[in-house]
Every structure is written in structure tokens, then in C-alpha cells.
Amino acid sequence: MSSRVKSKQANQVVRAQLAREERKRRLRMITLIAGALIVIAGFIGWGIASAQRSTKAQTPTGASSDGVGLIVGGNGGKAKVELYVDFMCPHCKTFEESAAGTLDEMMSSGRAEVIMHPVAYLDDASTTDFSTRASAAAACASDGGKLNEFSKALFAQQPAEGGPGLSDAELITIGRGVGLGDDFAQCVSDKKYVTWVSKVTNAASERGVRGTPTVYVDGKAVEATVQALTAAVNAAQ
Amino acid sequence: MDVTSVTTHVGAWARVRPWIGLIARVVLAGVFLFAGGTKVGDLAASGRAVHAYELMPYGLATAVGAALPFIEIAIGLLLLLGLATRLAGVLSAVLLSVFIAGIASVWARGLSIDCGCFGSGGELAPGQSPQYGSEIARDVVLLALAVFLVAYPRTPLSVDAYVLGDVVLEDDHEQQGEEQASQPGGTRATGA
User: Fold this and answer.
1) B116 in contact with A at a CB cutoff of 8 Å?
2) How many CB atoms lie within 10 A of CB A24?
3) B57 part of contact set with chain A, CB < 8 Å
4) What's the pLDDT score for residue A8?
5) Which residues cross the membrane (chain A) (predicted)?
6) I need a surface site. Which of A2, A192, A204, B73 has the fewest CB within 10 A?
7) Which residues of A touch B (CB under 8 A)?
8) How do beta strands A79-85 and A214-217 pair?
9) Does an H or E element contain A76, and which?
């Protein structure tokens, strides 16, 4: 083999080596950029969520002391009944309807104070975030002093899952039906308590409320049946 | 004769492999983009879905739930572009393994939740029962695709191939530098 051929071969080896190193350098750079992109993406999400959480929510005037519930009635009652409900949830409707008389009696006799936490767990079950809008409307009804009446009327007209739910106009009509006026209509149209509902929902999740309806009596979870509710309230007298 | 048949076999695998990789990339990209896209509109709900697994304190769950959709979308974009495919494959495999472990742990503890894989999760919609088995099966298939990309990250129609100057769809001896060294002036076994 002549020296010329040898040096040509050596050149080839060197060139191949250089090409491999250049390739490695580029691969490192790509990987670094991509890795940074992922990390940045994560922080963007975290930042947006933090900003959303710190958005100031207006608290309804009839809110419970923790700020994330509405006093239905029975202020100063012996037991404290807390109801986590979603107006989209069929089981909440059946529970509310079966327990309505019992709850009304407990409130009027002073045996229990009833607090409603109107959450929005089921926004996905309608195409218009009906859960959020309905819960916000309940807060508006609380401002108007007719939460109990509005809640009953709203459950009675619970929309089907997977559809558009009820429009704000329909919510207002239901409100007017129980004697709520223009302030209520304005409150619903302005989406005044939508941010507050998000706070209520997050607080419920933080407390470990995984589904609706969830019932607490004096801070203890109770099965969502009239019997269990009555027994727990009786025990608290 | 034996040698020839083995060579042909390897050649066929080398020709098919990049295309399998491309399919894996696109499928995984689609799943991650969709999964992230359904969650990104309601980050609070995403946080609640993570919290429903009861695996971490609420504050951490909300942070993870907020970051996750964006990370999923970012990984989906990397896969779609074929940019840093091996890294994207590794991260996909890690995420999917965490998802599988999370669902398995929920199943084992007898919790009844929506996995929140696509959309907000947490509470099951009324009348729904958990689908842990099929969710895990789906994630295992996706995990296999991710592992494939980690093993064979070089795919056609990728930014990687463009930037690195790789010729993905040639025969074996073009695949890696180390292989090239053993075949100086390598002769082409088959025509392109």
C-alpha cells in the first residue's frame, strides 16, 4: 500500500470521527433545548394556576364562617349539617328531594343549622359548565335570601347530562319563579360568583370530598340518606 | 446461504423499523396532545383530579395537576416534530409508568374515581363505574411505544434526522457511526 493511499484512508477516518463528534454535539444541544422546553412548560402551568387561584373571589353575604358555603337556614341550630351538592348530579337531586322535609323541620325547630357547599365537580357533564353557573346562581339566590327555595326549584328542573344544561336566562326564570328579582338576574348575568364557586370546589377537594352528595354532621362524614342524617342530628342534640 | 438469509432478514427489519418508530411517534403525540388539551382549560380541575388519587397533599397535587397538561402538550409537540425523540420517549415512558402505578394503586386501595386521563377526572359521572383495567392496558400499550422510541429514536420525517443529518431510511451500515467503522468503504447490499 502506497503512503498516499494510507494518508487518504487516515483522512477518511479523521473526517468520520469529526462528523461523529459534530453529530454528538448537535444531539446534546437538541436534547438540552427540548429538556428546557419541558421544564418551562411545567412552570408555565404552575404559574397560571397560581395566578388563577389568587384571583379575588367575591364572597356572598350569606356565606358560612369558612367562606366556602352558604347558610341555608337554622342559624344557631344545635347540629351543623353540611351538604356538598352539584346541581348537575342526579343523586344530589334524589337526596335533596327525599331529605327536603326533614331538613326544613331541623332548621325551623333549631335542631340543626344547614350549610350548602355548591360545588362544580361535573362541569364536564354539560357543554356549558352548567355546574359552575348553577352553583354561582345559588350564591346569587343566597344574596336574595331565597337559597332554599331556589335550590329546590333548580333541582326540580335538573337538565339531562351531556346536553347544554340550562341557560343563564333559564336560571333567572327559575329565580323569578321563587320570588327573586332584578338583583338576582343581574348577579347571574354578571357571573358574579363564578370565581367563588371555583374556590368552593377546590376547598371541597382539599377536604377530601370526592363525590356528591356528601354530607357532614358536626364535621363528621355521614352517609347521604335521610336515616343516617336524622340519626346523626339526633345524636347531636 | 445462511449468511445471506440472515442479512436479508436484518435488512428488512432495518427498513421497517423507522416506519414503526414514526407510527409510534405520531400515536403517542396524538394521545399526549389530546390528554393535555382536554385538561389545560381547567387547571384547578386537573389539580383536583390528581388529588383524588390521594397520593399527595393537596398543595402538591394542585401544582402537579397544573403542570401536567403543559408537560403533556410539550412532550406531544416534541414527538410530533421528532425533536429530541429519545428524550421525549424517556419522558413519555416515565409519565406512563407513573400513570400506571397511580391507577394500580387507586385500584388496589378500592377507591372509585375517574382517572382524569382525559378531561377533569376526580368524581365519576353518575352511573359510571371505574375502568381501571382497560386504562392500565391502554397505558401499557403506549408505554411499549415509548420504550420502542427510546431504543430506536431515529425516525423519518423528524427534526432530529434533519438537524443530525441522519439518513434514516438507508441500510444498516449507515445507521450508527460505530457500525460504520467496521465496514470501511462498505458495499451496498441492496439497491435503494
Assistant:
1) no
2) 12
3) no
4) 87
5) 29-49
6) A2
7) 9, 12, 16, 19-20, 23, 26-27, 30-31, 33-35, 37-38, 41-46, 48-50, 52-53, 89-91, 121-125, 161, 198, 201-202, 205-206, 208, 210-212
8) antiparallel
9) none
Query: Which residues in chain B touch residue A42, judged by CB atoms under 8 angstroms apart?
Result: 67-68, 70-71, 74
At residue A159, the 3 state secondary structure works out as: coil
CA–CA distances in Å: residue B158 to residues B82, B147, B164, B176: 4, 18, 10, 17
Rg over CA atoms, chain B: 21
What mean pLDDT is predicted for residues A39-63? Answer: 93
Query: Contact at 8 Å (CB) between A119 and A209?
Result: yes
- Which pLDDT score is estimated for A54? 84
- Beta bridge pairs of residue A63: A70
Which backbone phi and psi does A136 adopt, to 5 degrees? Answer: -65, -40
Looking up cell 388496589 gives: B108
The grid coordinates of residue A223 equal 352517609
Q: Would the ipTM clear 0.90, i.e. be above it?
A: no
B160 reaches A (C-beta below 8 A): yes
pTM of the model: 0.83
Contact (Cβ atoms closer than 8 angstroms) between residue B123 and residue B114: yes
- B53-108 confidence digits (pLDDT tens): 999 999 999 999 999 999 999 999 999 999 999 999 999 999 999 999 999 999 99
> What are the two backbone dihedrals, phi and then psi, of residue A167, each rounded to the nearest 5 degrees?
-75, 165
Question: How sure is the predictor about B116, in pLDDT bands with cuts at 50, 70 and 90?
Answer: confident
Instruction: Please provide the distance, in angstroms rounded to a whole number, between the alpha carbons at the two ends of chain A.
Output: 107
Q: Which residues contact B186 (CB under 8 A, 6 or more apart)?
A: B173, B180
CB pairs under 8 A between A and B: 119
Q: Do the chains contact at B62 and A16, CB–CB below 8 Å? A: no
Among A70-74, A177-181, B17-21, B126-130, the range scoring the smallest mean pLDDT is: B126-130
Q: How far is B123 from chain A (nearest CA, A)?
A: 5
Pairwise CB contact (< 8 Å): B91 & A49: no
Cβ of B175 under 8 Å from any chain A Cβ?
no
- pLDDT for B13 equals 87
Q: DSSP code of B122? A: B
Distance of CA B155 to the CA centre of its chain: 14
Q: Which residues of A touch B75 (CB under 8 A)?
A: 38
Contact state of A34 with B71 under an 8 Å Cβ cutoff: no
